[in-house]
Amino acid sequence: MNETLQTIKNRYSCRSYTGEPVEKEKIEAITLAGVQAPSALNKQPWQLIVLQDKSYIEEMDASVMDMLSKQQDTSTYERMMLRGGKVFYNAPCMIIIAKEAGTDLDTGIVVENMALAASSLGLGNVICGLMNLSFDTEKGDKFKAKLIPDGYEFGVALLVGYATEDSKTPHEPDLSKVKYIG
């Protein structure tokens, strides 16, 4: 099996990080993979925001967990508590993809490029749509003002870091999802 297919096969959603910072060269390689993604008409309707301020990530995490604990439906809060009580799993780096309105497909391609690049570099990663909840908290306006450029909206985030040993399990592919015609 070639190296690309092996990376795809071995990639998993990492939900437990050591907290150790990621080297600058690796972050640069991951973001380069992101901006090399194809986009409709090559418009590249995105901005990548690399957040490595651990205390800021933890502040957002605490704010989201507090908000989730107060919701009528606490199922998401309970799921996060079972996974260590952190929405961002102690990740030392968050790469936010801000997007122009209506460019969800392009955003998805960018994050997948970055997730595969991170995996190929030996880093755990998880695609994180829950980061959007940060903007719904009491501090949401502050977070959005710092992280999302004018004229853009949140697309998706990628959490990146060194995985703990107990978090390295890829999902089993469901081949029943494939249909051949002809």
Q: What would your notes on this structure say?
A:
With about 180 residues, this protein is α+β, with helices and mostly antiparallel strands. The protein has a single domain, classed as NADH Oxidase (3-Layer(aba) Sandwich). About 40% of the residues lie in helices and about 15% in strands. A 4-stranded antiparallel β-sheet has the order 1-2-4-3. α2 runs antiparallel to α5. The longest helix is centred in the middle third of the chain and has 17 residues. It is globular.
| Total count of helical runs of at least 4 residues | 6
CATH topology: NADH Oxidase
Helix content: 25-40%
N-to-C SSE string, H for helix and E for strand: HHEHHEHEHE
Distance between the termini: 26 Å
CATH superfamily: NADH Oxidase
Strand order of the largest sheet: 1-2-4-3
Name the overall outline: globular
The CATH class label is Alpha Beta
